Fold:
Amino acid sequence: MPNLSSLVSIALGGLLFVGLKKMLDFWSGQKRGPYPPGPKPKFLIGNALDFPMTGAGHHFMEVGAQLQSGLVYLNVLGNHILFINKKSVADDLLEKRAKIYSGRPQLAATLAMGWDTTNVSLMDYGDNWRRHRKVSQQHLNKRKTKSYEPIQKRHLHKMLHRLLHSPEDFWQHSEVLSTAIIMDIMYGYQIDRLDDPANAAALKMLELGLPLVMPGGALMNVLPFLRHLPAWIPGNSAGKAVKECEFWTREMLRIPLEDLAKRMKEGTATYSIVSECWEKKGTADADLEAESVLYGVTWTMYAAAMETTVSSTTCFFYTMLMHPEFQRKAQAEIDKIVGTNRLPTFEDRPSLPYIEAIYREVMRYAPPLYIGLPHASREDDWYDGYFIPKGTTVFANLWAMTHDETIYRDANAFNPERFFDERGELNDDDQILAYGFGRRVCVGKYVASATLWITIVSILACFNIEKAKDEYGNDIEVNDEYIDFGLTISEGARKLVEDAMVGEGK
Structure:
């Protein structure tokens, strides 16, 4: 076994070799044409020091403004990185040239954890991705998603009941809601608490794995040879996290699968996507490939739900707390259209434009994953006179696009009424950028949209979101780091929530 000093020498030698090679590639690429505007790179390390560990969306929005460019280019140790700050440019590249920009960068951490072959969102463009995408669309298309509404409604009613009794735990309730819906749809697996074994395993998986695939998350993503270093080497925290993440990924899949197998044997299983697939085994309709693909689809949806639905629900609570005037207008619309004798349903959505505007504004004001998941260029390309090399990592800077003052006046303010035209009708700005672009649009967007909308309208129908009070009855002020609030509910709304739980058999 090599000693520590030998391994360090190998690592440093590899670092120097890779750095020099990639810088030579960078300089040779400049002969093909100028790269897009960006900070001036430093010798050997390029723009490594220009890449912030946090707040990349806002940072590169500012850099783009200084450069007066919708594109910001960086070279990090020879790795080409491009930020798209303008939606018009994203449409040109990620939509109209989707054939070129539908790839995903194959990060060393992703490969080490096996996520490149199981997570649809992180797979590179190719046959495996097409198989997963096809199966995903069969079960998550707009028409099929309608059949999941009873599942969403049942878990939403449970959340309302939890909010009724412990509003201070709103974040946990939001998390349970989003994961419970996904696990129920996929497996018929029931999650009613945050420390459920499957949920706990999935949370651990995301806690360990997501930081490794984010920009600046792991040095091995810049210097791929580092993934082969033993996990026991001092300082190799990424290597240790990879090993642990592999374990928790297997656990997250194993627990609900074993539970489903047990329930099917007992004859107590309810409908789910995986149970439907299992029931076809041995029949002419069996699709064994689809079965294996579904396991990857499951945790892809789980990860997406955790990163989108939970953060957007938290943003909704925050913005309603800070803007009671919009909250009151939304509640007035619900009272007028839905009334006070029942809870809102999915069928009410077309009749509630103000709620739709709040949904759009929540997704614009604080889009989950500010810079989205990265695309990768699959061949050399030129845009607006600039050269974009094959293998460039391309980020759609959602923060910059949704806070573009040329499109959204006073973009840093929360204002759902920006989505109404001069006639008081919803305008046609209905594209939710958080769901992605081109061929990499989120396959679960219909489930996510329906879940978030029914959550927003139901909470507004039942509760008033107000600032919490201290022991002297004074308002507790809210800041961006900490949210504390109170919920009040009328007796009529309380009865609706309790009756809904009785109707669900609880």
Remarks:
- Strands lie at 71-76, 79-84, 375-376, 381-383, 386-388, 393-396, 463-467, 485-489.
- Residues 1-12 have pLDDT under 50 and may be disordered.
